[in-house]
Amino acid sequence: MFKKILIANRGEIALRIIRTCKEMGIKTVAVYSKADEDSLHIKFADEAVCIGPAPSKDSYLKIPCILSAAEITNAEAIHPGYGFLSENAEFSRICSEHELKFIGPSPEMIEKMGDKATAKATMIEGGVPVVPGSEGIVEDYNTAKTVCEEMGYPVIIKASAGGGGRGMRIVHEPSKLKHAFDTCRNEAANAFNNPAVYIEKFVQNPRHIEIQIVGDQHGNVIHLGERECSLQRRNQKLLEEAPSPIMTPELREKMGAAAVKAGKAINYEGAGTIEFLVDKDHNFYFMEMNTRIQVEHPVTEEITHCDLVAEQIKVAAGQKLNLKPLKMRGHAIECRINAEDPAHNFRPSAGLITVFHTPGGHSVRIDTHAYAGYKIPPHYDSMIAKLIVSAPTREEAIKRMKRALEEFIIEGIKTTIPYHLQLMDDVNFKSGNFNTHYLESQFKYQPPET
Fold this sequence. Notes:
Number of helices: 15
Strand content: 25-35%
Helix content: 25-40%
CATH superfamily of the largest domain: ATP-grasp fold, B domain
CATH class of the largest domain: Alpha Beta
Structural class: alpha+beta
């Protein structure tokens, strides 16, 4: 087992990893930018190294600075968390070259699954159901036109190197294809330095359901059930839960088997997530794979009682998985608490937190790096906390989440807490009747009176 791990990340996920390392008796090194010098992850790590100024490109994305921090602190491994360099194949490769264990998959695995077109081809080869679409990259408009005519509208154009909801365009009719195709390529080139796009049949009103898998260095892969991730805004998740309200034992068995098959197709090592679209008839299609820990991993932990970060570390150290497919017990919900103003189109709300009172009570978990007196920097993702609750049933979990949200008091900035509170009372949410477009097309947020 490793004696010391450097966490190449910030905020709540860095603190989350530090906590597991402490319980495993592993020393930790935090890295931070100058904008994050007051963040909690620095206070609880055994050592901390400043790696540069506020912009991510000059700190959390600057590989030489992270490697230097690992060298001067004698770290043996690097945990990348999520975001930043967590799915960067070159970073994984450089860590290996410097005899640092990258706690995650090999560069070859990241490359295979990080490029969506390649990932889709790999899944087809492995016998995993995929959304009908183009065979790889679509190079020009004429090819795109032919593909769409053969497939039928609506279609969705996606950046091959895309993520976070960027580089996507839905096209409902032929007259809109040319503009959407050119726009998507330009956006992909600007956002990802890669203009490559591919085209898929657009699955209307789907559910977004992901399966958590873990694989070791000995060829073993297991799944730990599903997470419901359909409540999104601009393709960014706002709330996740496990299990999914639409899941049946038969569907779970089929999707779990497909996810394990996907992992074994690339000899996957580490924690990963296979993301699927599920239509109204319970047909499911591979969408993409995330080769890292997910933001929403706590809901899986709460219903399986498995520490996914600990499993990541054990697998990276060469240990065999001793997890049998775990039984899911009860229901868990996670609300992402973002420093955003939902009354004004989710406008970012960086600034000083003057009051920060967290909820408590039975089966309530808070993952956060924030506190009263903490100044949220404007340079990074707006998520400042994750509120997770669990209960024996979904109905009880919703009631517990509503109570916990009411107790969560943050002043000095705007947050998404009022938005989540209204969602807890929404009839369609409570009945499980929603899809990936629900929040944008049907749910109407009413800002509370001040």
